[in-house]
Amino acid sequence: MPHKFTALAASLLIAPTALFAQATAPEAERVSMSQAIKAAQSSIDGGVLEAEIETEGDALVYEIDLVRGEAVYEVTVNAATGEVISQSEEQLTSFLSGLFQEDELRAAGSSRDVLMKALAELEGQDGTRIEELSLDEEDDRMVYEVELTDATGERELMIDATTGEVTQDD
Known about the structure:
The protein is an alpha+beta fold. The protein has helices at 2-28, 33-43, 94-99, 102-110, 112-123, and strands at residues 47-56, 59-68, 71-78, 84-90, 129-138, 141-150, 153-160, 166-168.
């Protein structure tokens, strides 16, 4: 009987540590946002509307919305390996048409190189991880709103979709 209690007590003490290690391990070993976008674009040749990292089940994945012509695709990329898990064409119903305006669709297609260069520069800074980005209109210009984590903590920036200029999000 004492052995069962000792084993139970030990497992209760070790379990939180194991869960914490499991929860943080994929975070430390994930591919960058720009690598995930490149993988998605190798599957669907399109411009980025939105991209974010999230948990699906027990795995970290990047969900990336790409536009090609007038079609919008959602591509899911495994954050640990950088492999494309799935892709599907999104139906632009009246709801989604409201989310993705014509200007955004056009800007996403033309800003590919500018976005990738800006992301590479941001990710080149020690410890910087991009968590989410989305294309939006701000002050009559198209910008990517970017959420990232770096040595100073969580920050929000904007990347001008035309010039690639990175500015603080006011």
